[in-house]
UniProtKB/TrEMBL annotation:
InterPro entries: Peripla_BP_I, SBP_2_dom. Belongs to the bacterial solute-binding protein 2 family. The keyword Transcription does not apply. The chain crosses the membrane at residues 7-28. CDD domains: PBP1_ABC_sugar_binding-like. This is Ribose transport system substrate-binding protein. It comes from the Bacteria. The lineage of its organism: Bacteria, Bacillati, Bacillota, Bacilli, Bacillales.
Amino acid sequence: MRSTIRLRYVLLAAVAALVFGVALYQLIGGGRQAPPKITVAVKAMDEIEFWRVLIDGVHTASREFNVEVSVIGPPKEVDVDRQIELIEAAIPEKPDAIVMAAGDYHRLVPVAEKIHQAGIPLVMIDSAVQGSYAETLIATDNFGAGQKAGKELAALLPGNAQVAIVSFVQGASTQIEREQGVRSILEGRAGTEIVGTYFSEGMEERAYEITMKLLQERPDLDGIVGLNEPSTVGAGRAIRELGLTGQVKLVGFDSSIKEVKLLEEGVIQSIIVQKPFNIGYLGVKTALSVLEGDKVPDKVYTDSVVIHKSNMYTEENQKLLFPFVEE
């Protein structure tokens, strides 16, 4: 009987010691901490292949670094007001950091100010805002990518040429910088006239309608630069439908199944392909570095690659043209 009682006391003491030890371990910070919460605000959720691949990079980083991410954004890039509403609603939830691709260089400034005033670290991806509110910007070198597009088209044009730029959402920093890059090359080319920049609002059908009208009104047009995927595809559809394949040269941006088909058919002569997966992945990774107190560079530029029919089948370029996107 006494041995049973003694054993019971020993077991109780052991349990008490274990409970005390666990409590002390958690008290001194040895307990498991909750993962950081990061809100990622994109310009469009599912409209363009670029954003689907970028979001895939976000989720890959979240799993690798044990980060809880919430991805928010409007259905279409043109809906800047909706993006503003979503981000402003996320600020009071006090995420540990916000990663943001700004739908407009100027209109998102008040949002960036609110994030800064709330004491939430801000990392910009793809598209910046005016001012110094972010810890860093992770993006394609859009001016340099625009220059690549300008050089590609310039090499295809006759001595005297008329060209047009089909852009996407007016006011986005990516649009501004790419157009500046294109113009820096083409405006410096003797005998080349840029007849105008036309905005598709990031919609393929709108780009198609713009280009159809443009080609009918300007039968002497020699070339077009499309500054994103829908703008390029819409312009390509119009060129093909009017029987102008190879006659009107087309250089575009980004990659999609439709663009690859137009490239194979010779409607598109070349495309400038970005690396959106890397941008999304690095956005989350860099936000985590900021939270850990690490110093990060002001800007991180990801590469862009020129792809045309003669090099589209290389293994490296096939990976860029056909990225794996999780459903």
